[in-house]
Amino acid sequence: ACWTLLVCCLLTPGAQGQEFLLRVEPQNPVLPAGGSLLVNCSTDCPSSKKIALETSLSKELVDNGMGWAAFYLSNVTGNSRILCSVYCNGSQIIGSSNITVYRLPERVELAPLPLWQPVGQNFTLRCQVEGGSPRTSLTVVLLRWEEELSRQPAVEEPAEVTATVLASRGHHGAHFSCRTELDMQPQGLGLFVNTSAPRQLRTFVLPVTPPRLVAPRFLEAETSWPVDCTLDGLFPASEAQVYLALGDQMLNATVVNHGDTLTATATAMARADQEGAQEIVCNVTLGGERREARENLTVFSFLGPILNLSEPSAPEGSTVTVSCMAGARVQVTLDGVPAAAPGQPAQLQLNATESDDGRSFFCSATLEVDGEFFHRNSSVQLRVLYGPKIDRATCPQHLKWKDKTRHVLQCQARGNPHPELRCLKEGSSREVPVGIPFFVNVTHNGTYQCQASSSRGRYTLVVVMDIEAGNSHFVLVFLAVLVTLGVVTVVVALMYVFREHKRSGRYHVRQESTSLPLTSMQPTEAMGEEPSTAE
Q1: pTM above threshold 0.85
Q2: Cα angle at 267 between 264 and 268, to 5 degrees?
């Protein structure tokens, strides 16, 4: 503890009119509650007797001497006045000091805030303070974060300080608290601060309009359909809770926020036991308030159409039954012929022929649900098994082609399963291609067996190829003309050389030339010398 030393005393006259003092130290000290204090009482009277200390506090004499005494005061819990007294020359001298005790508040608490506070409405901050003295030095401050909202003195015990605040979006998530300030600075001490635990405020905006719910009017059992629920003007949208349900079945919703808009999307799948009138519900909850939208929905079952063939792959000539059926209350129509009544099957029979191979049968089904018509179709294809055949119209039996020309043997086979077609020359294994171009010569002349075969049998067609040979006499004449022209050319050349020889005397031929060039005779040769060797 610290204190300010002052002197206050009562005076008494001495023997020759001198006045004596009784001092109490420290003078008017300030202590924290429960603190202790050493008090010293002293006087300048030489004839003083024993000094006494009068107080209601717990005291203990520490030491004394001529004209002084020291006392230890402990557990000082409240303001108190202490008196020191002594007799001097038969008169009592009294000295006093006032002890001031300061106490920090025992409880500083901000009352709980609303769990959710609507934006635009007032709420009250309440700070409750118990204990704390001296009250004249105690102040209560209400805060948002570190911003002062209100500052008021603590008057009553316990004290409650309030402030009214208008909630806004900016208050969402803010921390509010209250603080006490015990100002003991004028007494030479400090400013003692005590702050409550903070409380967080959550503000919200929930529009009065219900959500927009987009859902189907009809839903087939065991099928799925998307459901959307949207609410605008929501704050904070990220903290809203969404509940989507089909009847008693909760839907797994995916929630997306864009600003103040919330959209929940789910996939609704109805069970067979939910057939009939149902309801889709969307609840959006925020701040303890709820907005709800509902839409009626009819769950129905639509079985079929189921289209069957008695024999999907039927041999030619066999009887095939085609049937189409669907669930109760469903009207079926098979190849344009309706069933006798809703819920009844439709049938037809036929003798399978080659022309029925690949034939398609169609069945349509219609169901009425609460004035709405639903349609479904189904189709099936019949496969008729029949033996191989060759179309005579596309496969000529007598062909007349010229030698060394290109042609295509246009023959086609049909059947189910599809047959293999081969054309072989009679008496040999020679095969001609079918359907692709090939080069014809005289060796192709003859009769061919064109046979189509499959697991259903064989079919044979005879094709005769008559190959006309080319004109060979004309070719021989042409070759003779060419030979004759060559001989005449050689003769004319020899005659020309002979004539030149007569004109110039002698000549020789260059062996390496094929055009037989002539050379003139050398002067030595003209003089009768032997001719040189031909070059």
Answers
A1: no
A2: 115
* Percent helix / strand / coil, the chain, rounded to 5: 10, 55, 35
Domain membership of residue 330 as a residue range: 306-386
Question: Which three-class secondary structure string do you get for 428-462?
Answer: CCCEECCCCEEEECHHHCEEEEEEEEECCEEEEEE
Q: Which two tokens stand for residue 327?
A: 């669930």
- CA dist 280 and 535 (Å) reads 120
- Residue 56 near residue 80, CB atoms below 8 Å: yes
Burial class (CB in 10 A: 0-12, 13-18, 19+), 304: middle
- Chain position carrying tokens 């996939």: 267
29 and 66 part of one domain: yes
Same-domain check for residues 76 and 135: no
Residue 96 pLDDT class (50, 70, 90 cuts) = very high
Give 451-470 pLDDT, tens digit per residue.
Answer: 999 999 999 999 999 999 86
**pLDDT surpassing 70 at residue 504:** no
8 in any annotated domain = no
**Residue that terminates a domain, selected from 300, 321, 346:** 300
Encode pLDDT of 102-124 as tens digits. Answer: 999 999 999 999 999 999 999 99
Q: 205: helix, coil or strand?
A: strand
DSSP 8-state code for residue 116: S
Do 145 and 113 have their domain in common?
yes
User: Could you tell me if 195 and 221 lie in one domain?
Assistant: no
Q: Token match 């294809």: residue?
A: 381
Tell me what pLDDT residue 485 has: 60
Residue reference for tokens 């004596």:
20
105 and 192 Cβ atoms separated by less than 8 Å:
no
Determine contact, residues 113/176, Cβ cutoff 8 Å: yes
pLDDT of residue 486: 57
Pairing assessment for the beta strands 91-110 and 30-32 based on DSSP bridges: parallel
- Condensed to tens digits (0 to 9), the pLDDT of residues 342-390 reads 999 999 999 999 999 999 999 999 999 999 999 999 999 999 999 999 9
Is 474 inside a domain boundary?
no
Distance set, CA 523 to CA 119, 529, 535 (Å): 141, 9, 17
**CA distances (Å), origin 339, targets 88, 328, 329, 361:** 138, 13, 12, 15
CB 138 within 8 A of CB 153: yes
Q: Is the model's pLDDT at 439 over the cut of 90?
A: yes
CB-side exposure of 402: number of CA atoms within 13 Å?
Answer: 4
Helix, strand or coil, per DSSP, at residue 117: strand
For the chain, how far is it from start to end, CA to CA, in angstroms?
A: 153
pLDDT 10s digits, 385-418: 999 999 888 899 999 999 999 999 999 999 999 9
User: Environment class of residue 199 by beta-carbon count within 10 Å: exposed (0-12), middle (13-18) or buried (19+)?
Assistant: middle
In the three-class reduction of DSSP (H, G, I as helix; E, B as strand; rest coil), residue 490 is classed as helix
Spatial CA neighbour of 117 closest among 236, 214, 212, 241: 236
Shared domain check, 195 and 137: yes
